[in-house]
């Protein structure tokens, strides 16, 4: 049984997705509604440095030196997702989209976020689904829907987020964390 409202949830790729950009991915759903859904793949750093693409933004928050792969849609654009540290007034250039999460206007001043942002990831592209598409993929067994924790996606670069998220689930779902990359080699 999946929740009807997926905004704020994590989508964790099931072993059914055995190749491509979504293989062993964890996606933060930023928006889900009758018009479709959008999110970003978490934990996939790219080689590109943020300051090389967006000067000044690499020092906007701790651990924000590298760009991350957000998904296959509009990969030539950037989307900044911030982990918020307080409930104070929302600074200019920041739009709260989920509890503890905001989208940052990259045309603004990176220093305006000082003290408000405790984590920042800048993504090249995003993941998107048309109306009903994500629900059909979940029903077909492509995605597990799980609750997110506040630090998801903002941890150390190189952390295997797919295994981490699955291992903390209850019951049989936690066992999927040990699913081999190539089941034929088991």
TrEMBL record:
Gene3D superfamilies: VC0467-like (3.40.1740.10). It comes from the Bacteria. InterPro entries: AlgH-like. Pfam families: DUF179. Belongs to the UPF0301 (AlgH) family. PANTHER family: UNCHARACTERIZED PROTEIN YQGE, UPF0301 PROTEIN YQGE. This is YqgE/AlgH family protein. It comes from Nostocoides veronense.
């Amino acid at each position: 049984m999946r929740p009807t409202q997926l905004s704020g949830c994590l989508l964790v790729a099931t072993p059914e997705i055995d190749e491509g950009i979504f293989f062993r991915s964890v996606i933060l759903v930023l928006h889900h509604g009758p018009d479709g859904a959008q999110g970003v793949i978490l934990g996939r750093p790219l080689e590109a440095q943020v300051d090389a693409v967006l000067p000044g933004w690499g020092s906007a928050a701790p651990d924000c030196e590298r760009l991350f792969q957000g998904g296959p849609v509009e990969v030539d654009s950037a989307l900044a997702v911030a982990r918020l540290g307080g409930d104070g007034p929302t600074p200019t250039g920041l739009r709260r989209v989920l509890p503890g999460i905001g989208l940052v206007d990259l045309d603004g001043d990176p220093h305006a976020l000082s003290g408000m942002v405790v984590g920042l990831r800048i993504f090249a592209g995003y993941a998107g689904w048309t109306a009903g598409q994500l629900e059909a993929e979940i029903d077909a067994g492509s995605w597990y829907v799980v609750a997110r924790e506040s630090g998801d996606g903002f941890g150390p670069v190189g952390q295997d987020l797919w295994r981490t998220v699955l291992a903390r689930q209850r019951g049989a779902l936690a066992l999927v964390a040990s699913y081999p990359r190539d089941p034929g080699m088991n």
